[in-house]
């Protein structure tokens, strides 16, 4: 029975290792998604800032400043 016990332990260890690898992959994917969302928010904020700046400059020109 020693052989079967060793095989069972080896299979369990391999399953745990695969499970950890899958969890790590999922965590990395989630981290990448968060990173991309943050980059998108920064780009949106920068575009909004530039838009407001351009609008204010246009208003200043109309006022003759």
Relevant terms:
rod-shaped; 65 residues; mainly alpha
SSE order and pairing:
Blueprint: H1 2-63
Region (Disordered): 1-27, 40-65
Structure description:
- With 65 residues, the chain is mostly helical.
- 95% of the residues lie in helices and 0% in strands.
- It contains one helix and no strands.
- The protein has one helix at 2-63.
- The chain is rod-shaped and about 95 Å long.
- The protein starts with a helix and ends with a helix.
Number of helices: 1
**Beta-strand share of residues:** under 5%
What level of helicity do the residues show?
over 70%
In total, the number of strands is 0
Q: Characterize the main sheet.
A: none
**Rg to the nearest angstrom?**
28 Å
Average pLDDT confidence is 93
SS-derived structural category = mainly alpha
- The coarse overall form would be rod-shaped
Measured distance between first and last alpha carbons: 93 Å
Q: Uncertain regions: pLDDT < 50 for 5+ in a row?
A: none
- Element-by-element helix/strand order: H
Region (Disordered): 1-27, 40-65
Summarize the structure.
The protein is mainly α and 65 residues long. The chain is 95% helix and 0% strand. The protein has one helix spanning 2-63.
């Amino acid at each position: 029975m020693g052989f079967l016990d060793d095989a069972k332990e080896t299979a369990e260890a391999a399953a745990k290792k695969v499970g950890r690898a899958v969890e790590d992959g999922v965590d990395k994917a989630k981290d990448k998604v968060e990173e991309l969302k943050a980059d998108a928010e920064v780009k949106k904020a920068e575009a909004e800032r530039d838009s407001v700046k351009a609008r204010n400059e246009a208003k200043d020109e109309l006022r003759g400043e």
